[in-house]
Amino acid sequence: xxxCLQRANTLSSLFSSVILGLCALIAASSWLFSADxxxxxxxxxxxxxxxxxxYHHTAQEFMxxxxxxxxxxTSLFNWNTKQLFIYVVASYPGSKYHANxxxxxxxxxxxxxxxxxxxxxxxxxxxxxxxxxxxANRNAxxxxxxxxxxxxxxxxxxxxxxxxxxxxxxxxQK
Length: 174
Prior knowledge:
Order of helices and strands: HEEEEEEEEE
Number of strands: 9
CATH class of the largest domain: Mainly Beta
Strand content: over 45%
Number of helices: 1
Low-confidence stretches: none
Mean pLDDT: 85
Distance between the termini: 83 Å
Structural class: mainly beta
């Protein structure tokens, strides 16, 4: 080695290679854990109403959803899990697009102790509107989906079994 700069470069290259190898081993070892999460979403009430938004001048149909959520996601946590991102999705066929998914509620779970919960009477977090502007004659299923965010490695997605299809009601007239 000819200079201190070349020695520093060699050491940093070796250190980076070792760290990359360790991260790959950690990511590979998390695939050895088997997970059997359970979750259920039970819709209590759905209301469809007309409203105007600040960016549209025409009335659009929005959906309000009340639901109960029960989940045991503790098996998704292992020593490489940083946190879980969970969200409730309404899936329905559309007139303009073949399949549509709308996130109506979400939460971040940062520990295994909080991964088992029962939450009655939840409401949607976001305004829920169809891209075509109408909810008429739509059958929607609701399911809990999750994203496992590891310390190192690839993200893992999963989903609970959806509800039976629910016919969305017509909007209430004012």
